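Why do we bother with a discrete structure alphabet at all? Because it lets us treat a fold like text: something you can write down, compare, and reason about line by line. To make this less abstract, here is a complete entry for Endoribonuclease YbeY. Read it the way you would read a sentence in a foreign language you are learning: slowly, and without expecting to understand everything at once.
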Amino acid sequence: MIYTIEVQLDEGITADSELVERAAAAVLAAEQMPEGCEVGIRITTDDELHRLNRDFRGVDAPTDVLSFADDGHDSRFVVAPDQPRYLGDIAISYQRVLAQAAEYGHSPARELAYLTVHGVLHLLGYDHEQGPAEAARMRTREEEIMTILGLPRE
């Protein structure tokens, strides 16, 4: 499947953008999303995730990943049915990637891929904050996709 995944690395961040693209595409393929879906992913800093978390969720604290799904209900724009489907944007804190990789005892690459998978699943409607059953469903799907990527839990 062919998807459009735009990865933006903020200044000074040396994350593996190809891994991010691969991880996002793996989720979209595993979830059988139609070709042409679009996702934007920004790898940024703790400070920026803190600001976004505060401004958009009302939580005055840094976090590792945020997803901003496009619900498709913006009536200002009309999109032809044959146009690509824009799913939304994800922001990932690279500082959290490094810290959590060390904390959990795995590679920064695995953590970066995991947060990407987690964020894309949120764009597709998965939400671990909706209770234990949904959290378990999301975690299972994350691990299935991480295995597909060759980055299973160590």
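What the structure line is telling us, in plain words: The domain at 4-148 is CATH 3.40.390.30 (Collagenase (Catalytic Domain)). The radius of gyration is 15 Å.
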